[in-house]
Amino acid sequence: MQDILFEYELNPTTWAYLSALLTIGIYFKFNRLFSVRNLDLLGLIIFSPGLLLVFYGMVKKDPSLVQFGFAWLLAVGLLFVVRLFLDPLMVRRPMLDPNLSASGLTFTGIAILVFLTANVVSERPPNRLEFELASDASSGLQSPGCRFLYFLASFRNAPKSAEQEAQQQPDDNRKQQQRQQRQQVPKRSQPKADWTHPSDNAQMVVSRTIAILAQLATVIGIALIGYYHFGSLQTGTAAAVLYLLLPYVGQMGGRIDHVVPAALLVWAMAAYRRPLISGFILGLAGGLIFYPLFLLPLGCSYYWQRGLRRFVLGALLGILVMVVFVICVSGSPELARSQLQQMFGDTIFSREDLVGFWQAYHRAYRIPVLAVFVVLCGSLALWPAQKNFGTLLSCSATVMLASQFCQGFEGGLYMAWYLPLLVLTTFRPNLEDRVALNAVIERRALWVGRLARRNRRPA
Fold it and tell me: pTM score, two decimals?
């Protein structure tokens, strides 16, 4: 941006302060100081110190500072887990309009989106953390979803066979070895593709384009949920602008392993009236980062009275598409098996690649946390017994937020997986009538509507 705007520089600390002031000025209800909306806004602002601690700790190569930052993020996340778990009990949901008009919100949202897009395009690509923590120099490429998404963006082929490697030119081998030494990629017992970061112009353009489109899809999805499902375009616009205002979006908005799953999860909620489409999108998200698969019991519980078969069929189709795609691009059975194991959570018990809060603790401490997470997902599928779209939103946000405690790699930093759903839960009105029997569109109704429109056409 400095090439466009003279002396333009907005560091994470400054943006955190400005974001907090704008959030309070636009959304804080000063005539209802102790409302749940105000508490949610303060909780979102309290996330910022943890992000700054992680950011500057990695810049200064201070593991203790980074550890404290991850602990801060998980502590605030734990408070929100409790708040979201109790959200179905909050029956009174008054529609609180923001302090800014709809036109002002729209202008603010477009302006922020343009600046965030320009930052991704013009600045140094923020697709991964460009910092070294301890001996890990490629910290942004170690999670399964991150590796897979960067593989899609980098157009890299599967590793060549032994005969092809023997025929490769010595100069190419030397360059490859030098590249691996610079990136300090740890050796592994399982075969893996070349997950190196995109370096040439074409690959960088693709990576940035994916991040921008995913961020745009997330914002549009939030606004459409407010318009179609909350019955208020201003509420949807307000939720989208609040999401863009959060400091996390400015710092991590260019990492495709963050924003792509966020877009899929938002659109899965936007399409909740069509179980087949919602399940399919959720299956795609689960194929990328594994944790959305824990939303399937919750979805089955919601669609139990209507749309269950379509939802399950859509989820299976989405997972099948991802499996077929991985097999097609892997190039070898061993590599395909390795990537499929990662896709379905094999690395959740990994002893390696622990970066963040769990790096300082033995992996045995993660076992009870994983057990509590599974119990939480099962309990949300059973309670509350009568689920509406509001509880579907809050419970989905609860599951994705709780997954951060199980994530061994940068757990707590993948906030895009739950922030859009959390923001929507904050703004949602009373949706007790949006149960599956009333909201889900029947297949017969679709065909009847099409036939009726066709019969109305003049001859």
Answer: 0.84
